[in-house]
Amino acid sequence: MSLAWLSIAALALAVTLSCTTAVNIGILSLSLALIIGVGFGDMSTAMVLEGFPTSLFTTLLGVTLLFSIAECNGTLSRVTARAVALCRGHAGVLPIMFFMVGFVISTIGAGATPASALLAPPAMAVAGRAKIPPLLMAVMAGNGVLAGTLSPFSPTGIVANGVMDQIGLGGVEWYTFAFNAFAHALVGFGTFFLFGGLKLFRRQNHEGTLADATMDTNSVESMENQHWITIAGITVFIILVAGFSYDVGMIGLIVATVLVLFRTVDEAEAIKNIPWRVILMVTGVSVLIALLTATNGLELITSGIATIATAETINPIVAFSAGLISVYSSTSGVVLPAFLPMVPSLAEQLGGINPLNIAWAMSVNASLVDLSSLSTVGALYIASAAPGTDTRKFFNALLAWGMSMTVIGALISKLMFG
Q1: Best exposed site among 69, 94, 294, 316 by fewest CB in 10 Å?
Q2: Range of the domain at 97
Q3: How many domains does the chain have?
């Protein structure tokens, strides 16, 4: 068997195990790359590890450390509690507010899992208190978070934009973000209004104060010096990156270091809270993809897809495929690093296609399914469901939501990207 086919088999094995087991696909991918490259490809260890994405690692480290500090010292929870209080019990406004808060927190760099971990408990508690259907609240809050995950500051956006830059499709970060935000707003608000959202505007929550509904002591906690310093640091981070185009990872690390020096957080706790599992997944898969490219395995895969697709069907096909795999696997750790590198070759083989449209179709639909009950985001809302909720029914509803998004997302991708 040639190295190309061995590399393809390794990728297929890694993706399959990521969908069916709890093994970290990054560690598995790194091991498989070393076995194939050194054991069968007459490559040195150093040659295989040249595929390690050092720049991507630094970027992810800087951003996740910065927002780990904001989460650990209570800054994000205090900001969220104050946003909730503004609604003052208006049932119809509450889900929309959670969508917007999740969108902002995720966009500025927190990412889907930290933002969901922050929002899910108060969102589902408020839903129970205000008699808002749990699915409606989860769809709104979850899609708000996911709408911001492809921003240039968010970990998933960093992965997507990093890979796109490597394949010659860089410089469109805000377009990628905007398309993803639009798609999530479309499905989120569409579901909200189609399945009972309008009825919520005809009543208010008269059964208790909003503070009671959140059941969160942080909602009455005051902002202290470390919180104001953290907000100032995040503001500086956004201004320097968005306004002056400084490197995201570099500024994130510098601001995080300054916050640690100002003793705004327990450094050990913040470092422990970094999503190391996700970082290992992304970097490990990147090494295997680099080997796949070097052995021409990636070219074999794209040739196979090109034989069954046409210029008219390629976008919905890749959108559906990326979404289906993302239901069971990691968007940032598996789908984007593994499939985006195929885009330029697919566009070239099919002819007359803008490769950006294929990349956007993949990225958007992989994100649209991430509220499935099999994903971390969906699981957080199920775990936070208010007492008395039928969690089995809620689990099945979110699973059906995620699976339906593979088809609906493919249709949206066809309409948006041709």
Answers
A1: 294
A2: 3-417
A3: 1
Q: pLDDT below 70 — which residues of the chain?
A: 1, 87-89, 203-220
- Which whole-number Å values give the CA distances from 262 to 132, 230, 246, 258, in the listed order? 42, 10, 23, 6
* pLDDT computed for residue 197 by the predictor: 81
